Amino acid sequence: MRDILDAVASGELSPAEAEAKLAGYTTTGAGRFDAARETRRGVPEAILAEGKTPDETATLAAAAVETSGRALITRASHAHVDAVKAMLSDADIDSDPRARTIVATEPGFERPTIDASVGIVTGGTSDAEAAGEAAAVLREMGASTERIEDVGVAHLGRVLDHLETLREMDVLIVAAGREGALPTVVAGLVNTPVIGLPVSTGYGHGGDGEAAMLGMIQSCTVLSVVNVDAGYIAGAQAGLIARAVADARDD
Amino acid sequence: MRDILDAVASGELSPAEAEAKLAGYTTTGAGRFDAARETRRGVPEAILAEGKTPDETATLAAAAVETSGRALITRASHAHVDAVKAMLSDADIDSDPRARTIVATEPGFERPTIDASVGIVTGGTSDAEAAGEAAAVLREMGASTERIEDVGVAHLGRVLDHLETLREMDVLIVAAGREGALPTVVAGLVNTPVIGLPVSTGYGHGGDGEAAMLGMIQSCTVLSVVNVDAGYIAGAQAGLIARAVADARDD
Amino acid sequence: MRDILDAVASGELSPAEAEAKLAGYTTTGAGRFDAARETRRGVPEAILAEGKTPDETATLAAAAVETSGRALITRASHAHVDAVKAMLSDADIDSDPRARTIVATEPGFERPTIDASVGIVTGGTSDAEAAGEAAAVLREMGASTERIEDVGVAHLGRVLDHLETLREMDVLIVAAGREGALPTVVAGLVNTPVIGLPVSTGYGHGGDGEAAMLGMIQSCTVLSVVNVDAGYIAGAQAGLIARAVADARDD
Amino acid sequence: MRDILDAVASGELSPAEAEAKLAGYTTTGAGRFDAARETRRGVPEAILAEGKTPDETATLAAAAVETSGRALITRASHAHVDAVKAMLSDADIDSDPRARTIVATEPGFERPTIDASVGIVTGGTSDAEAAGEAAAVLREMGASTERIEDVGVAHLGRVLDHLETLREMDVLIVAAGREGALPTVVAGLVNTPVIGLPVSTGYGHGGDGEAAMLGMIQSCTVLSVVNVDAGYIAGAQAGLIARAVADARDD
Amino acid sequence: MRDILDAVASGELSPAEAEAKLAGYTTTGAGRFDAARETRRGVPEAILAEGKTPDETATLAAAAVETSGRALITRASHAHVDAVKAMLSDADIDSDPRARTIVATEPGFERPTIDASVGIVTGGTSDAEAAGEAAAVLREMGASTERIEDVGVAHLGRVLDHLETLREMDVLIVAAGREGALPTVVAGLVNTPVIGLPVSTGYGHGGDGEAAMLGMIQSCTVLSVVNVDAGYIAGAQAGLIARAVADARDD
Amino acid sequence: MRDILDAVASGELSPAEAEAKLAGYTTTGAGRFDAARETRRGVPEAILAEGKTPDETATLAAAAVETSGRALITRASHAHVDAVKAMLSDADIDSDPRARTIVATEPGFERPTIDASVGIVTGGTSDAEAAGEAAAVLREMGASTERIEDVGVAHLGRVLDHLETLREMDVLIVAAGREGALPTVVAGLVNTPVIGLPVSTGYGHGGDGEAAMLGMIQSCTVLSVVNVDAGYIAGAQAGLIARAVADARDD
Amino acid sequence: MRDILDAVASGELSPAEAEAKLAGYTTTGAGRFDAARETRRGVPEAILAEGKTPDETATLAAAAVETSGRALITRASHAHVDAVKAMLSDADIDSDPRARTIVATEPGFERPTIDASVGIVTGGTSDAEAAGEAAAVLREMGASTERIEDVGVAHLGRVLDHLETLREMDVLIVAAGREGALPTVVAGLVNTPVIGLPVSTGYGHGGDGEAAMLGMIQSCTVLSVVNVDAGYIAGAQAGLIARAVADARDD
Amino acid sequence: MRDILDAVASGELSPAEAEAKLAGYTTTGAGRFDAARETRRGVPEAILAEGKTPDETATLAAAAVETSGRALITRASHAHVDAVKAMLSDADIDSDPRARTIVATEPGFERPTIDASVGIVTGGTSDAEAAGEAAAVLREMGASTERIEDVGVAHLGRVLDHLETLREMDVLIVAAGREGALPTVVAGLVNTPVIGLPVSTGYGHGGDGEAAMLGMIQSCTVLSVVNVDAGYIAGAQAGLIARAVADARDD
């Protein structure tokens, strides 16, 4: 640390640059892809493909792989997958059409491992994309994940069937659209932290995830919530909690 | 019916007046209190005390008792109760401070009886007023009611404990505030018509019953819904269904 | 019931599984299509075609027919109809382009019959899809339905022309877009339960069914309401009421 | 007009001042009370008492009487009435507690007369304040008004009873709270211009006049609309139409 | 009138049918096109092409021409125009691409004439469609219209240039998008009834006519308002006022 | 567990009751206070004093102390404090007027201890109540808490001053009103899970915590969020995470 | 600057503390009152009295006077004024009941002077508080202000009368409630930067400043906007612009 | 000025025309393109290509170049660029695909020069369009602009790196999407006027710039704000401030 302070004293670094270095990041000339944040929080940055052309997406992915060894792309169409495969012909590409995610890694890239498990609970096929996005970021962070599918508040028996599994997890992500009641029901049955993930199903009044979002925010039990369809945020937050648990486990 | 048409032909009645008479109502000079609607739909009109002075409320109640033998008053404060008792000293007064209802009847008033049962399910004390309003109108319509209290989506065991009772009812009213998930959970367990009654609990984003209302409207199971805190409407709608069932039972 | 409890005691069933069985449903390996709910509530599950590919829709329909003898598909385009016909070549297919519904049944499938009638009231062609969806689910539940079309609050004479029919029904579904006043007008004329079905017509401020929804929620008469364009829910709720009436009639 | 232009040429008046004078108004030193607008549009300015102290209200009323011979005060409490009576001891004071209006005139003040009639239709006591405000401004503008009370969409017979009167009016103001359907129903029955006046009754979702406002804006018939509880605006707009009709009648 | 009442007395007509006839309309078997409303209110019904196929639109237009001699179609695309021309080859077709209106009349159709004038004020090209829709219905109702274009609150000089014309009109429609201030500015300068017509220009926060609508509803001067882009309603309401004025002029 | 299953087999317990017992809760006759949930999730139930009379609050507190040894009361006024002190004269009472919390414990009550630390970051005095509520529930759950006050996005230096402390915590709650940017800024600097707690400061457009809530939901970094002013929920969620960490630490 | 870097090098200061010092602020132990921000931006911090007790307000005011020589208090009631006068008996107190502001200065306090002028335009008495708040902060920053009152879009002549004055200002703040059109009209007439200040007048749909805010945001001319009733922000922003102009003038 | 007044006196000019001329604008027959406003405020009018056909856009651009020597076109697609190039073959065309702007000038056109600098701060590529639009209008107004890119609240180091540059600017535009916190952070570090420019990034609850807009409106520091994506307005407002500063500098 001494050398950083010397650099400040000598004028080579501004105090802000010094602070930045001490905080574990650097301002590279690379611009757009924030390798620093990845280092800083241990959360892989995601490239949101939606609203970008396949070509723009692939270029960013290449920059990410070059800088950090890996690119995580969300909300990708088939055209995005094709463009990434074409441009990163040397990389290992793993794409999941249901989750609409792509992960590209340079050969030999080693993921971290977190000794903690995250359960991802969904009610139906319409939750698959958001849940898959969460699963992708968790896998990249190294947590082990368990998918608990096809449960729903209108089918209580299915929730109860999985009770033991739900209680064994270190953290739970519970995705739900429509009225968004599932996280409330699940959180009432476990003593694990639950993250509610509203999904943009539903139509008409309160549709597009609005009712689900408000229902989770107003839950009569203990929950925290992320944005509608924000599978990446839910996964990364669960990953941060899982890593805190795993770090404690390692001590 | 002949004499009505004669009265039209002779000019004593306008076609509109004739239609009115055929439809079972008359335009009395009494103005405000609609005794006709009561006759027509079999639903006692309610006098909403909120926003009226005790004196105005009592005057309307007196008009209602005189016209129809009974007054049903909702959202009444202690002052409203006192004013009604003072002005209708000859009537039988039955007031319920938790439901904030008053029923005044002339001596000897006979309620109808409906051979059908309505279950009213609530999660906590904050649902008591809306549920009590529903119970009051149902009692006046003659249906038998069953209160199932202190159940909630965060306490699934309590719902399951009451399953048999829930399934025995002809109609269910399920009240819920906060995220409003209880009607969805209950409707998933029974084959009875369920009416969702959102309650204005909750604060902050989506509070005051907004999340509950949207959650019930977006329910992933089969429900119909009434306005926030609209206990009177929920009760009357359940009463109409109960009467349809009872009428069929009587055939 | 004894054998279920034995299975619990012996560890073959968890208490939750036991509860599930007692409640009349089973968790099949089939996953997605909930034959159990159909058995439990007597309401045919609907497959929402909107947002699914023709292929996905047809696959789910095949699963539904295999499990329960029937598939009910809503919001189907011509492409969905073609895919269902191609995949279920042995089934009887009945599709209604105005209602955008498809019903596929295995040969010899027998619908239930409910001895009760449901009136479906609409104001114009723009209500036809929602009303047709309601009619489809009611037909599958076995209720007899009567369509009362082209009435509207700006044409009171037409409402009054149908008064007798409206009063003969056991339940009424009243669909309306724009200002959504028709259910209020109809409910003021009958003593039958009325379910308001807002339709997403209208444009500009309060358009897309918003004004209609709020108007029905705020109705000055007794109504319950379903979501905008939720013809399936309106139909199923009317069907549950009709069945309750018919069951009483059968006693 | 020549002298005004001379004043511009000589620099006594700016072009803007000239324009103002030609347009029929003057910028007095009196400040707050716009006697000019009254002259210009023939609509008496209203002093909104709500949010002003009794003393402030009375002071403005005195300024209005001094400038234009008359003060029209809306949303006045008893305290406002008392303060106006005390400060304007020489004026004729006419206050209406249901409409919450006060009109103060200097002795001998002569109202205009408009040979046209405006119908003001209301559904119940909760519409009385807004309707009374409209009636007050119309009386001050000189139009004759007819009150048609206690009609409502849930009581169609009452609407039909008044059909002849409704059709005789030159303009109609139709006030309604809750779902706000009455203006639509009335406008479907007459060939008179109808102004919808939403009233802030109703509670819960879409309450406080929101559903009524949206319903009138979305009406499936021909209407124009004013703000919630804006009785003064509805009355003044109806008065402008009535005067246009009366002016034509006088030609 | 006597024969209608006889028909009621003899059972040939229900009271509702009688009322309908007295009110000036009949329930034809034609269903959809409400020729009756046209007779009743003197306002030509509009066929909204948006959301209908060209074929459906042309079929409705044919029905309208057959029933009432004329069809007025709004929000029509080129395809709608072509289909109408093809199906109504004998009719006179007048289409306006800026207003997106089509008027088809049977040969020899005679429009009414209203001796009153309506000014239609707009700020720019984006108001042309709504204003043109208003002009079309006014022309069909027989009123004379004056277009005052390219004025706006940010160009006060242009408003003032047209002041004399504005003051000569019997009614004014003032269209505005963005912040919607023009109707307020115009209404402050004239003593004519002003109808505010919000237009769906604007983007971002309060865009799509929302700010314009709210601004007109909250206007600090006297106005009434119609829905966003509701040129037909604005025109028809102005036409009803113009006709009331013209009728008075004729007396 | 054997004896529970025996009780099921013998009919003493329903499967639902069995499930309930296995889940760690019992349905007591006490009704309102859910001691079971406390046992189940390890989160002390809170009694929300707001909207309850002092007497009702004290009665519930007495029930809570009797059942679980402790009562946690939130949003309490001075009158609530006095009533609780009067009714629970034997209990230890700890009230915090800034946080508006009361904790009552029976003599000798022993809190759990969690070997994990939670940082509670606030920007100003207006965040004190929500933050204090979070601190109270964390203290009752046994976590150690650190308050980091008077930091804000408009005073970045203060945030940076506390960087080391922020990074040492196991979980962070960051409260913010107005634009709610502080949790985003903090989460960008640490690799700890951050829970955003919006506070109902701010006025006008987006006030009362609305902008803060939306800003946290839309954060460009990784966060989860609770309702506006939901200090209790934020604290309990942080407590669940802290306990998960501590349990891992203990392994 | 050298000594700061030395302090960093020696470990006396963290880089963040160094950055803070270089930026012109220090973290005092005083906590709440941000004297630093005042130094940094040259904008006096305001103490918002609303929601604080008179005593809390006076205590903060004392801290402000002690730290910076001056306290600026907004939204103060008479009770706040009395408390400030009592606690700061040695200070010079200047309170303005219409603006609801208090300024307390230590004897001999010298305000800065900015050689630039700010015009504050209002339409009526209801804008006085917000405009007065803006004027207070501008006076404390040293700018000269000109009040242009009682102009409004419905009284264009008054706007035009003040055109010369409006054009002489360096910056304009234009306050408006209701439909908020005045800033648009003014900005169309001048080439000066205009800041729109929406005011919470208006009632019903779009009331409480909502329509005014949206109208300014959607203005068809060039404006920037602050929050509803945010007189302090409008004044401070105008002050920053005025100072930039004055600094340029001084060069 | 004398001759204008003479023209008024002689009737050649109306007072309004005189006022218009004095204000520096004329009503040309050209209609749509407001060359006058450009002269009046020194802000080049923008032609919004979005919603216009390429041909319409090019025609307007030709009119603008003919009238004022220059056309500024915003939100242009490639097709718009091609059409403008084709129609204005003699003009100098400068198009920026990232900003989606086109500037066409007649040969030899001379831009003004403003001796003041505007900083435009952005967080990422999604802010490029709005920022580029602001830069385009500033360049046309003659201000020098500095782009500060890729800073964001989650990367504080980057903000601090640019602190010196930020403080050297005369005005700052700070664009931000998602939670919109960047303008608040920047404004807390400088004593320059800051204009917040919300950008329509973000999805789900509060997406499309809604959270960013509300966050800037609620900022706890001194800012003024423009509409979502309103780069042109932000640039023009900054340009007006810059010119005021430059004019002072020139004195």
UniProtKB/TrEMBL annotation, chains A, B, C, D, E, F, G, H:
Gene3D superfamilies: 3.40.50.1970. Residues 116-247 form the PurE domain. It comes from the Archaea. Pfam families: AIRC. InterPro entries: P2CMN_synthase_LarB, PurE_dom. SUPFAM superfamilies: N5-CAIR mutase (phosphoribosylaminoimidazole carboxylase, PurE) (SSF52255). NCBIfam families: LarB. This is Nickel pincer cofactor biosynthesis protein LarB. It comes from Haloferax namakaokahaiae.
